[in-house]
Amino acid sequence: MDLAKYFDHTNLSPTASRADIETLCSQAKDYGFYSVCIQPFYVSYARKLLEGTDVKVASVVGFPQGQNTAKVKVFEAIECIENGAHEIDMVLNIAALKEGRDHLVLDEIRRVKEACGNGLLKVILETSQLSKDEIIRACRICDEAGADFVKTSTGFQGRGASLEDVSLMHSVSKARVKASGGIRSLADCLAMIEAGASRIGSSSGHKIMQELRNEGL
Length: 217
Description:
45% of the residues lie in helices and 17% in strands. Strand 5, helix 6 and strand 6 form a beta-alpha-beta unit.
């Protein structure tokens, strides 16, 4: 297993500087991470920093609360793709889901998926805010809308990823699962993969890989 290829090396801090993004991209190149995940403002800059490498650029839409209108989310996704993003991590409309307005959630995800073109779409459920039944419903909506991944969390609301949520999402969704939020150690990472995650979102990827190297694995 090439653990590095599981990582979306992440910095979504609202105070992230150009220097921070440079560090993030440098670490992604050094460790061979799958991608960096950054705010839309830095997409074009990160794409330039990663030119000539196989590290991809992911960015976020409707982040972190998911309450933008569908039209705004579509515009965000289009601009991110035009600026060089390969993947979009979109927060679904949590309030609409909880109210049972599934048709609105479905339509929004479909529209953003179309806006991604050939890019991958990951839909953030924010599992800490949902019941088990709501997580199942959200996964099925994402499947119907054609999402490539279902993702646990933004890391900005409530707890992050849990093994129970990842296992549930893996069992009910046709999409791949991204575990994100609070994954800071090698043990955390391996447990999430064992539970069914095929992508890991973490700002600690470089520390986890160093831990792996220190253990001689």
